[in-house]
Amino acid sequence: xxxxxxCFHCGGIAIAVCVSHKLGDISTLINFVNDWAAITxxxxxxxxxxxxxxxxxxxxxxxxxxxxxxYQEKPYFGLPKxxxxxxxxxxxxxxxxxxxxxxxxxxxxxxxxxLICKCAASALGLSPNSPLLSxxxxxxxxxxxxxxxxxxxxxxxTFFLFCASQTDQLPELVSKMKQGMVGSEMQLKKYGGKYRxxxxxxxxxxxxxxxxxDLKFALMTLSSWCRFSTYEADFGWGKPVWIASVSNFKxxxxxxxxxxxxxxEVLVNMExxxxxxxxxxxxxxxxxxVEPSVQLYHQDDLSTFNV
Length: 307
Description:
Blueprint: E1 2-7, E2 13-18, H1 26-44, H2 58-62, E3 82-89, H3 91-99, H4 108-123, E4 132-139, E5 157-164, H5 170-189, H6 198-210, E6 219-224, E7 252-257, E8 264-271, H7 272-278, H8 282-285, E9 289-290, E10 294-298, E11 301-305
Parallel strand pairs: 4-6, 6-7
Antiparallel strand pairs: 1-2, 3-8, 3-9, 4-5, 7-8, 10-11
Helix pairs in contact: 4-5, 4-7
């Protein structure tokens, strides 16, 4: 883990945190930052409660190391000419987007993710009916039986798949996402609890170790950080005014709550030529703003800056 604290002449502070996925996932990272802030706040203001401790061994009980095969790790290759852009969806725009999926009732994430995948298929230059395979990250903590506490440390994630194309309408895409999730529910339970299947887990690890890193087909990787209390960390100076993520993962997409908890910020990473098409897609621009200025609220002051 690496932490960098940046202090600015204006008195503002930016804290950057980087952690290896071998140690933890976004749930682990957010819990760490929130607990760190709560402990710091406690020693500045004694009336501030201390957080409950993280659970260090709950993940080990689900994934006992001695029972699983170990495969050679493949090197990670970033995307040297990648561009990361921020697409911001206001709450009213998300509600309007969700309405276009009727009669299906999508979640915020499902509606926005479906639109992103549809527009990405066009940006990647796929033919109208060519499929775009998308993986969606799933938090295992609440899906194994019995579930483990939310403060369980570790990299407790897996994925489910669905395919999108340019010709799919939003109701079709949302339906595919829902079917992908429902279809994977029983498999998700095999990762732990009374349904744990070590042969199944070992096969998943083997497939991942053998999968080529230079894929010959289009793939999007979707990860939702929504509902993870990202704006709750208070070190004693108030809660964050803005949070973002940085990645050069090819065709990676991170979905984050806006500060109001209702809108959404989507960080998309693509090769330059593909991003140039995506940020001009009119279907996307109907609902999202590209790289808008970040509004910073501090007491009675309102200021903006460009990121």
